């Protein structure tokens, strides 16, 4: 599995699930058009763009381009790369019928098509051995700091998210992805909570 430095932005959870089986990267969902009314998520996109850079990978239909253009309007274009999937007619396996435009989305793409789209966008692939990379924050680290699996964890998580100017409703799993995009394990343990 290829590791990518930038944070990849996709439309929804099925896109994220498909992509997470192909690359090792922080992947953020826009919740489709939900990005239009979510000020916290827009701030998060700006922060992640400034920290790691973004790659926008949306479906090739009209909705995907609306979301892509919205992101263009809120994030400095120098910090964003755009990955495009080809127009392929078809229907995703989980759906009863094809989309309105009859095209496969990110979730319906073969792994090699997704890798090629990311390469063409200029994704920064990190092929260094895992032992040479900074240590990642794990679920066990969240537990150790009292941010998950314990009484009061949700409140402690909310306070940390607020302190970091991140969306307060983020789940522990979503927070883990974002924390790993923003800092390494050593920096996480230095955080005062």
How many H/I helices? 8
Q: Beta-strand level of the residues, as a percent range?
A: 5-15%
Give the terminus-to-terminus CA distance: 34 Å
Assembly level: single chain
Shape: globular
Q: How would a textbook summarize the main sheet?
A: 4 strands, parallel
Low-pLDDT segments, ≥5 res: none
How much is the average pLDDT? 91
Number of strands: 7
User: Strand-and-helix sequence, N→C?
Assistant: EEHEEHEHEHEHHHH
Q: Which sequence of strands runs across the widest sheet? A: 4-2-5-6
Radius of gyration, CA atoms, in whole angstroms: 17 Å
Helix content: 40-55%
Question: Which class of secondary structure composition applies to the elements?
Answer: alpha/beta
Q: Could you characterize what this model shows?
A:
With 193 residues, this protein is of the alpha/beta class. 41% of the residues lie in helices and 12% in strands. The protein is globular and about 50 Å long. The mean pLDDT is 91.
What brief labels describe this structure?
alpha/beta, 7 strands, three-stranded mixed β-sheet, 193 residues
Structure summarized in a few sentences:
The chain has 193 residues and is α/β, with parallel strands linked by helices.
């Amino acid at each position: 599995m290829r590791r990518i430095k930038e944070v990849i932005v996709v439309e929804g959870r099925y896109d994220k699930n498909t992509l997470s089986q192909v690359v090792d990267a922080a992947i953020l969902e826009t919740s489709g058009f939900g990005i239009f009314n979510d000020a916290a998520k827009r701030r998060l996109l700006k922060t992640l763009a400034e920290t790691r850079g973004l790659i926008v990978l949306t479906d090739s239909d009209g909705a995907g381009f609306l979301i892509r253009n919205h992101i263009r309007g809120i994030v400095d274009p120098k910090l964003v790369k755009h990955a495009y999937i080809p127009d392929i007619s078809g229907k995703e396996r989980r759906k009863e019928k094809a989309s309105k435009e009859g095209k496969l989305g990110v979730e319906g793409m073969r792994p090699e098509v997704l890798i090629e789209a990311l390469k063409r966008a200029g994704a920064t692939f990190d092929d260094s051995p895992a032992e040479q990379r900074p240590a990642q924050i794990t679920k066990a680290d969240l537990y150790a700091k009292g941010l998950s699996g314990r009484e009061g964890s949700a409140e402690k998580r909310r306070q940390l998210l607020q302190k970091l100017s991140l969306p307060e409703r983020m789940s522990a799993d979503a927070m883990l992805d974002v924390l790993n995009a923003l800092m390494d394990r050593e920096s996480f343990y230095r955080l005062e909570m």
